[in-house]
Structure of Cyclic pyranopterin monophosphate synthase:
Amino acid sequence: MNLTHINEEGRARMVDVSDKDETKREAVAIGSIYMKSETLRRIHEGTIKKGDVLAVAQVAGIMAAKNTSHMIPMCHPIMITGCDISFSLDFENSKIDIKAVVKTVGQTGVEMEALTAVTVAALTIYDMCKAIDRDMVISEIMLVKKSGGKSGLYEREV
């Protein structure tokens, strides 16, 4: 198997994408944060002391997508053309499902940006609620779709 992020000396390198065609690309990632039912209720009611948890988490997720290349060493800086973060409150399972959709037109995909957006949104929820619930669990973060580029469409069965 040819490792694309390793040079001839066996050292890390950023892949050269300059010869790749620019294409419209999209990535969708999801994840969940489980919490006590009381915590979920308070988020829903807007009574968390630190403020509007989902509004802050949404902005944090978007900012994270835009700054992925600053956190993940081999990620290329990408001009993101769109980023949307959505939340679904699941009272039956006492969790919040998070979804990030990231778009660009470029030479490399935005999978890492979508995954980073979901992760940071979940971490932000944790941060804003940890005073009342330290048992929260962030899990099930995964890429569910990517399109564009040479490899085309990928969709995970969920």
